[in-house]
Write a structure and sequence with these properties.
The complex is a heterodimer. By secondary structure, chain A is α+β, with helices and mostly antiparallel strands. Helices cover 19% and strands 35% of the residues of chain A. Chain A folds into three domains: 125 residues, Probable tRNA modification gtpase trme, domain 1 (Gyrase A, domain 2, 2-Layer Sandwich); 87 residues, 2-Layer Sandwich (Alpha-Beta Plaits); 74 residues, Elongation Factor Tu (Ef-tu), domain 3 (Beta Barrel), CATH 2.40.30.110. Chain B is globular. The chains are: A alpha+beta, B alpha+beta.
């Protein structure tokens, strides 16, 4: 067990490699109850959500979900979040465990409107069922027609009699679901899902596989790729930044950086040999240190050693040769397009 | 589990000494804490290390760990099979996945290491700390 944002979490159950492969080829079950939840209500809820986030929440319909950034005034990340629209006057944010209280305080401190903000993490447990067989497995436990829930949408309904929010989202690069429900049902749902999924190859997965899966899928992890020092442009997350939606926290700083162009940018890279890049290792262009690795690991499904790093903007082109400083050696690597892994359609 | 004829370090290496020839590897506890081992970096034959110096690196999917020499050693042989089959460290850490062999000019250093029983007590204590 490791301590993660105040929660004791297993890094692995049967082993990261086996868990990673199960999610790519069958299914995996993750207990992600550590994730935080914040609700924003009231007629001005939408104005408040729009003010503190970078994406355009006006575009959401009821039952739809959006990836977004919770922004500082400098256009950097307080957190990266999922915004769920429950109704025109009710939004539900799924936030990172370690940031939950900070996010809540930030939203309240920047409440320009008469929106009600509630820190509701203790009311929800969350399980993630991820992988190509996740739909078939979850369908055995619910009457909600899962095929009718599109990617980044959710429905409400009972799972094994437990009232749940069933979202078609995930952090693995696979099809899958994240279900939210009252914490007293956690053990029961965990056990029932494993009973239903076991014969289909579903196994319990820990934080270790969650990290290697999201890295292969090219997804950011707060505290690694993004934090209060990185902007949406730098993190290559321009697609969750809608400048045209009107004024929001960080808008002016982001507008300036958009004109000037960011000096550095997040890229993916592949190691040329068997050496493994790790978080914090230096990145070199020739002899000169030009950046740092934000995440680095073997990619168990791709069977390549991969990573993400900030490099000078002009070095961003795929194919560019870089070196990663590993135990005093300069190990060759090459910038590549992300995501590293895309699931077959 | 832990061979009685080996000695163990607090950094989770084992040493087997026969005459002046020592064999060094990492313990079952170490491989278990690391998880799936995917890469091993080892010294070259001829390299000399004193007790406590870094002789190589073991990497699992999740972590990097240095291997320290528990004793003074002059390396004569490295286990080349581990380069292409690092998972052997998970499968047979006390046997087939030995890491280096070499001359140990100072066998008295062995007395500073733990025997199997003491090592088992040492890791039981570690696990209690981790569980607490």
């Amino acid at each position: 067990m490791v301590n993660f944002g105040g929660w004791d979490m297993p890094v692995e159950y049967s082993g990261i490699l086996a868990e990673h492969m199960a999610v790519r080829t069958a299914a995996g079950l993750f207990d992600v109850s550590h994730m935080g939840e914040i609700e924003i209500y009231g007629t001005e809820a939408i104005a408040q959500v729009q003010y503190v986030t970078s994406n355009d929440a006006w575009k959401l319909s009821d039952g739809q979900i959006q990836y977004s950034g919770l922004m500082t005034e400098s256009g950097t990340f307080v957190d990266d979040i999922l915004v769920h629209r429950f109704g025109a006057a009710h939004y539900f944010l799924c936030v990172n465990a370690g940031n939950q209280d900070g996010d809540f305080e930030h939203i309240v401190a920047n409440n320009q409107f008469a929106a009600e903000v509630d820190n509701v993490g203790a009311r929800y447990s969350q399980l993630a069922i991820q992988g190509p067989r996740s739909r078939d497995i979850l369908q055995r436990l619910t009457a909600v027609p899962l095929d009718s829930i599109r990617y980044y949408h959710f429905a409400r309904g009972a799972v094994e009699g437990v009232e749940s929010l069933i979202a078609r989202t995930g952090y693995t690069g696979e099809d899958g679901f994240e279900i939210y429900f009252a914490p007293e049902h956690s053990e029961k749902l965990w056990d029932r899902l494993l009973d239903a999924g076991g014969p289909q190859g579903m196994i319990p997965c820990g934080l270790g596989a969650r990290n290697t899966l999201r890295l292969e899928a090219g997804m950011c992890l707060y505290g690694h790729e993004i934090d209060r020092t990185t902007t949406v442009w730098e993190a290559n997350l321009g697609w969750i930044c809608r400048m045209e939606k009107g004024l929001f926290l960080g808008h002016d700083a982001l507008a300036r950086q958009q004109v000037e162009g960011p000096r550095r940018i997040l890229v993916g890279f592949e190691m040329a040999d068997r050496l493994i890049a790790r978080d914090g290792y230096p990145v070199f262009a020739g002899e000169q240190e030009v950046g740092r690795v934000t995440s680095g690991s073997p990619g168990p499904f791709l069977k390549k050693n991969i990573g993400m790093a900030y490099v000078p903007f002009e070095m961003r082109a795929p194919g560019t040769e870089i070196f990663i400083g590993i135990r005093g050696q300069k190990a060759p690597a090459r910038i590549v397009k992300t995501p590293f892994y895309k699931r077959p359609k | 589990m832990y061979p009685a004829n080996y000695k163990y370090s607090q950094e989770h290496e084992w040493v087997a000494l026969e005459g002046q020839m020592a064999t060094i590897g990492i313990t079952d506890y170490a491989q278990h804490s690391l998880g799936d081992v995917v890469f091993v970096e080892m010294p070259k034959p001829g390299a000399k290390f004193s007790a406590g110096q870094t002789i190589g690196t073991v990497e699992s999917v999740k972590a990097v760990s240095e291997i320290y020499s528990p004793i003074t050693i002059e390396v004569t042989e490295v286990n080349a099979a581990l380069a292409n089959a690092p998972e052997k460290i998970n499968q047979d850490p006390h046997g087939a996945a030995w890491m280096i062999k070499g001359r140990a000019p100072n066998p008295a250093e062995m007395a500073k290491l733990m025997d199997a029983k003491a090592y088992e007590a040492f890791i039981a204590e570690k696990e209690k700390e981790a569980g607490a």
